[in-house]
Amino acid sequence: MRKTFKVALAALFLSVLGSASNADAGPLDSPGAQKAMVCSACHGFGGNPPSKTVPTLAGMDPAYFKQTITAYAEGKRQSPEMEPYAKYVLEFGVDEIAAYFAAQKKTAPTKAKTAPK
């Protein structure tokens, strides 16, 4: 009986996965969404931080995001907290992650200052 239940559950799961379309896409279905999850610990889900002391990534210009991440990864912009995460972003898809954050709606202003372009 348990095996039959597991097989039925697996078949249901696979049919749901197979029937998903772009119209059915959820908040984590974009190419950069899952890669950007590591950023959510500080910058909040979708780049909207819970604190006004952390920069908002939602709605950020992709070119500025990539420039800033590169500067952190190369040590040109000093931040012991950001450097390892910036290297992760460069390694696993800075373009997809930048596009993901650019597409997110900014829900709250931040008081954190960003470097001039």
Could you say which structural class the secondary elements and strand pairing correspond to? mainly alpha
Fraction in beta strands: under 5%
**What is the total domain count?**
1
Distance between the termini: 63 Å
Please mark out the parts with pLDDT under 50 across 5 or more consecutive residues, or reply none: 7-21
CATH topological fold name = Cytochrome Bc1 Complex, Chain D, domain 2
What does the radius of gyration come to? 18 Å
State the main characteristics:
117 residues, Cytochrome Bc1 Complex, Chain D, domain 2, 6 helices, 50% helix, globular
Task: Give a structural overview.
It is a single chain. The protein is mostly helical. The chain has a single domain (29-117), classed as Cytochrome c-like domain (Cytochrome Bc1 Complex, Chain D, domain 2, Orthogonal Bundle), CATH 1.10.760.10. The protein is built from 6 helices and no strands. Helix 4 (62-73) crosses helix 5 (82-92). The model is unreliable at 7-21 (pLDDT under 50).
Compact overview of the structure:
Helix content is 50%, strand content 0%. The chain is built from six helices and no strands.
Give a topology summary.
Blueprint: H1 2-19, H2 33-36, H3 40-43, H4 62-73, H5 82-92, H6 94-103
